[in-house]
Structure formats: C-alpha cells, structure tokens
C-alpha cells in the first residue's frame, strides 16, 4: 500500500508540474544605483573551485566529497547573504546576489538530504521538489526558491538568460557555473552559460532531422517570445536551428548532477 501511495504521489507530482509565472514582488523592486558597495562571494567561489567538476557537457558536483567544515562554510555564506538588505545595492550587485544565493541554497538543500537521486524527491509528501518551501528570511520576509526566481529575478530583470544562471541540481538543467556571479562578470557568464547549454545535447538536439529542446523552452516560453524569436535566440549558437519548420519535442533529465 505504501509503495502504491508513493507511486501515485510521484505520478501526480509529475503530471501537475508547471512552471510558476513571473509575478513581481514589489518590495524587492528597489536599488541604490549610487552605491559603490560590493558583496563578497569569495567563499562561494572557493566552494565551486573545490567541488564542481567539468565532465563533458556537464558540470557535476562532488556532493559525496563535501566536508562537514565546507558544508558549514556554505551555510555561513547563505546566512551572510541573508543578513544583507539587497535593496541597498546597485542592480548589478543585486543580480549576482540573487543568483548566487539561489544556487548556494540549492546545493545546501541537496546536502541536507544526500544521498538522493533527484531534487524532485525533496519537499513535502505531495510536493514536486523544494521550490515552494521557505529556505531563508531576508529583512524578516520568508523566501522560497520560487520567490527568488519567479518573483524577483525574472520580473525585475526581464532577462531570459537568467534560466541559464540559476541551477536546479539536475543533469537536464543549465550548468552550475564554475565562477560565482559578480556585478562585473555577470554579462560574460550569462553569455557563456547560454552558449554552453544551447550547444549541448540537453539544450538543443537534432536526431534524424528532428529537433528536441530542453523543457525549459516550453515551461518558460513566455520569456523567450514567439517560436520565431526563440529560434533566433538559439541560432546565435546553433545555426542549424535557423529556418527549422518541423515538429519540436521537449525533454528534461531530473537526475542529480553529481559526480560518480
């Protein structure tokens, strides 16, 4: 009976999964463009340097090898970011702040439940992953990963390449970048992340002339515009997409992005 319930729960979760809409949380839509303050992401960079391994088209995380000390340092980094008021910083500093916070929290959530086969196994019994769970508090306000991505990053910056920046700890997801985002490197990293994903088979794949795209382009179609606009975006890195008129299918691999 328990196994049947678990199976039915998984089926319901997958069947009802849909990407949240981009809806602005007005409170966070403020910045101080006169500020010259910067936010230190060195501890996150040190973590990435130590535990992210590039294997082919994937950036994998050595979850099993992460020491207790480095786990605590990761938690300290998240607490430090959460103690700041991002509205006191420039938009450029804010963007790097939110992306790094999202990615660091995601890794920390995996570590809290490791070993686990997929991030979709996290969360409550009837949840598909942890995205709707409270993960931090900033300025006394509870935030979820969905809040960070869909109520802050997407609506404030209106930047479709954000989907290549935030990482959901899955093989089908755009890679967790080996460099922490900063105000200075954001544009270069977004461009690098977009190119990496689109030239990879998990982003865009042709098989006997048929086009398969990541589910990201279906879930967040509104961010990429019309199909013609999406293909123009993809064709910047995969010229064979240009002029494609056939059927499009979508795939996504939720397996954990871990080293073996």
UniProtKB/TrEMBL annotation:
GO terms for biological process: cell redox homeostasis. Residues 87-198 form the DUF547 domain. GO terms for molecular function: electron transfer activity. It holds the Pfam family DUF547. PANTHER family: GLUTAREDOXIN (PTHR34386), GLUTAREDOXIN-LIKE PROTEIN NRDH (PTHR34386:SF1). Residues 1-18 form the signal peptide. This is DUF547 domain-containing protein. Keywords: Signal. It comes from the Bacteria. InterPro entries: DUF547, Grx-like_ET.
């Amino acid at each position: 009976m328990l196994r049947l319930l678990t199976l039915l729960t998984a089926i319901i979760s997958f069947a009802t999964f849909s990407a949240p809409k981009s809806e602005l949380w007005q409170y966070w839509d403020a910045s101080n463009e006169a500020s010259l303050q910067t936010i230190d992401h060195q501890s996150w960079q040190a973590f990435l340097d130590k535990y992210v391994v590039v294997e082919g088209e994937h950036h994998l995380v050595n979850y099993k090898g992460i020491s207790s000390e480095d786990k605590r340092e990761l938690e300290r980094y998240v607490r430090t970011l959460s103690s700041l008021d991002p509205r006191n910083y420039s938009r450029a500093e804010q963007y790097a702040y939110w992306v790094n916070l999202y990615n660091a929290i995601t890794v920390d959530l995996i570590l809290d439940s490791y070993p686990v086969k997929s991030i979709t196994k996290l969360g409550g019994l009837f949840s598909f992953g942890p995205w709707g769970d409270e993960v931090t508090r900033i300025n006394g306000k509870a935030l979820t990963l969905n809040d960070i991505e869909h109520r802050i990053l997407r609506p404030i910056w209106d930047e479709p390449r954000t989907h290549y920046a935030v990482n959901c700890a899955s093989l089908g997801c755009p890679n967790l970048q080996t460099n922490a985002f900063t105000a200075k490197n954001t544009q270069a990293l977004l461009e690098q992340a977009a190119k990496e994903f689109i030239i990879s088979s998990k982003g865009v794949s042709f098989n006997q002339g048929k086009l398969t795209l990541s589910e990201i382009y279906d879930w967040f179609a509104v961010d990429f515009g019309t199909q013609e606009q999406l293909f123009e975006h993809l064709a910047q890195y995969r010229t064979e997409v240009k002029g494609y008129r056939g059927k499009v299918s979508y795939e996504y691999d939720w397996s954990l992005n871990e080293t073996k």
